[in-house]
Amino acid sequence: MNAAPVARRPARRRATRREQLSDEVAGHLRAAIMTGALRPGTFIRLDETAAELGVSITPVREALRTLRGEGMVRLEPHRGHVVVPMTRGDIEDIFWLQATIAEKLAEAATERISETQIEELEQLNSALAEAVEHQDPEEVAFAEFAFHRAFNHASGRIKLAWFLLHVARYLPPLLYATDPSWGTDAVASHRELIAALRRRDAETVVRLTTGQFTDGAQRLIVRLEKIGLWD
């Protein structure tokens, strides 16, 4: 009588792990498409991608199904998944949507944030500054994410913050994290943001918040132009 529940538990763990792998693979491929590493018209081979990432074919297949739903790849019968062309307008739309949501979160955070939460932002920005100084891209990306997660949480608008997180999947974090000038600018912008939060200056908080998305779009477009994506 006790055997059945025991037998089911590993299956659930395997399903969870497979889902996590699928998300990781989708994130890798999404970033490669957004940065032009995988160009429009490129076929993404299941076996090659699985070998490159050190996973089985199953999470790669599931990741491609996710990207197909996002319009980033399409399935061509008997040929496989191919990267769909991406325009400047597509990039501008993605960043516009993020900025629009972030503006509402910034307004709410300015009103609701506590002194304890502001101190937390100070600490998180110090961690970002340290990562930038050490030129550690992964730590820079992690610290930047942690800062904005805490800032958005302070808004109290959790559902809206979730939507922003969902759209933010299209941001290729390591593209920015490997750019020293971006890291320095981000730390300085965060310091100005924190100061504005302390004096409840919603106009400045919103300007700084939405400005980061404008800057992010410009940097990505410049990179894609340099590599000749639209030539």
TrEMBL record:
Gene3D superfamilies: GntR ligand-binding domain-like (1.20.120.530), Winged helix-like DNA-binding domain superfamily/Winged helix DNA-binding domain (1.10.10.10)
Database matches in Pfam families: FCD, GntR
One example GO MF annotation: DNA-binding transcription factor activity
Region of interest called Disordered, as start-end residue ranges on this chain: 1-21
Domain HTH gntR-type positions: 19-86
SMART domains in UniProt: FCD, HTH_GNTR
InterPro entries reported for this sequence: GntR_C, TF_FadR/GntR_C, Tscrpt_reg_HTH_GntR, WH-like_DNA-bd_sf, WH_DNA-bd_sf
Keyword terms, alphabetized: DNA-binding, Transcription, Transcription regulation
Domain of life: Bacteria
PANTHER family reported for this sequence: GLUCONATE OPERON TRANSCRIPTIONAL REPRESSOR, TRANSCRIPTIONAL REGULATOR, GNTR FAMILY
Name of the protein: GntR family transcriptional regulator
